[in-house]
Amino acid sequence: MQFETLAIHDGQAPDPLTGSVTVPVYQTSTFEREDLERRGEFFYSRIGNPTRKALESTLALLENGRFGLAFASGVAASLAALQVLKPGDHIVAGLDIYGGSYRTFEQLMRPWGVNTSYAASESTESYEACLTRETKLIWLETPSNPLLQLTDIRAISRLAHERGILVAVDNTFSSPYFQRPLDLGADIVVHSTTKYLGGHSDVIGGAVITSDPGLHLKIKNYQGAAGAIPAPWDCWLILRGLKTLKIRMKEHEASALHLAGFLEQHQAVEQVFYPGLASHPQHELAKVQMSGFGGMLTFALKGGLPAVEQLLAHLKLFVLADSLGGVESLIASPAKMTLGPLSDEEKRRRKCTDNLVRLSVGLENASDLEDDLRNALERK
Ligand SMILES: *Cc1c(COP(=O)(O)O)cnc(C)c1O
C-alpha cells in the first residue's frame, strides 16, 4: 500500500469495541486485571496505552520500520535512542545539527562518559576521519539545521556497518514522506513529532523507529523506566496530523521551491540554502536520497543583522517564532534563536552567521508569501 493509505488506515483501524472510526483517546492511567495471574495487553499507561500504541504502529509503518516508540518530546526521543550506548562509547555527529541535540551530547551525554566528535555535515570523509575505536554511533541530521546540508545516509551506513557502528538519523526536517532513512541503511530514526508529523503547532512530541528487535527492546525498556511518555490526547493529535502528512508535505515543498527561486533572484539576498535548487552543492544527492526537498529553507541577507531586523520589522505573514513544520509560515534567526546560547567561536565553526534567516514555509498561498517577503525586503 502507498504512503497516504498507510497513514490513514494501518495502525488506525476502527475501534473493535464500539466501531469508532477514529482511534479513541484512552484517557486512563490504568486497566483492570482479570485476576492476580493474568493481565491484558495494557495494564498501566506509562508502559502502554492503546492510543499511544496506534501512534507507535502508524509511525513505524510510515518509516518502513518494524517498531515505533512515542515520547513526550523530540529531545526525550533523542535521549532515549542514545540509551543504546554505554559510558566509554563515542559518538560522531554532524556539526550542523539541532541546537538541542548538541546540548544533549554536551550537557547530558558527556558527563555520563559518552563523548561526541563533530564532522562536517556534508562530507562522508569527515565522518570517517572522526571515527575512533570507541565509536559506537553516528548521529545524522539531513538536511541539516540551519544550513540544509545533506549527508549521504547510504554511504555513511555502509562505512559504519563495516565497523559495527550504528547509524541514527534525525528525520524531522524531511518527514518519512520525503525521506526514509531505514530504507537507506540507517538503524534508528528519531523524530520531533512536534514539527511536520503533528503539523499544526499545537503539540510537543517525539518518536524513535527501528527494525532491530534488540535496539527496540532496549529503548522500550528505557521508555517505561524513564517515563517520558506522551499523554493519550497528544498521541491522538499527532495521529490526526499523520493522516494529512502527504498533502501537507507536497504543498510545503511546492511553496518552498517557489520562494527559494524568488529569493535567489532578489538583490537583497546573498545566498539561498535549499536542496531543491540546482545551485545547491548537493542537489544531485538530494534527488536520489529524498523523494522531495521539504519545506525548510535558509537564506543569507546582504547587510548583516540590521538587514535581518529590518526584514522582521516589515513582515506581516511570517511569524517570528521557534519551531517549524506547522501550517503557518514561521521565520527565525538561527544565530539569535536556536543556536543563540552558543559562543561566537562555536557559531563561527558552524558558519552560523548573524545574517542567516530560516523559513518554515507554511500552507498559505505561495504568492501571498512571496509578496510578504518582497515587501519586507524592499521595506514597503
Ligand atoms: C525541534 C527539533 C528537535 C527537538 O524536538 P522537541 O519536540 O522540541 O523536543 C529535534 N530535532 C530537530 C531537527 C528539531 O527540529
In brief, what are we looking at here?
The protein is built from 14 helices and twelve strands. By secondary structure, it is an alpha/beta fold. It folds into two domains: 3-243, Type I PLP-dependent aspartate aminotransferase-like (Major domain) (Aspartate Aminotransferase, domain 2, 3-Layer(aba) Sandwich); 245-377, Alpha-Beta Complex (Aspartate Aminotransferase, domain 1).
Describe the structure.
With about 375 residues, the chain is of the alpha/beta class. The protein has helices at about 5-10, 50-60, 75-80, 100-110, 125-130, 155-160, 175-180, 215-225, 230-245, 245-265, 285-290, 305-315, 345-350, 365-375, and strands at about 65-70, 90-95, 115-120, 135-140, 165-170, 190, 205-210, 270-275, 295-300, 320, 330, 355-360. The protein has a seven-stranded mixed sheet with strand order 1-7-6-5-4-2-3, with helices on both faces. A five-stranded mixed sheet has the order 8-9-12-11-10. α4 (about 100-110) links the parallel β2 and β3 (about 115-120). α2 packs parallel to α9 (about 230-245) and α12 packs across α14 (about 365-375). The longest helix has 21 residues, at about 245-265. The chain is globular. The termini are far apart. The protein binds pyridoxal-5'-phosphate. Pyridoxal-5'-phosphate binds near residues 141, 145, 170 and 206.
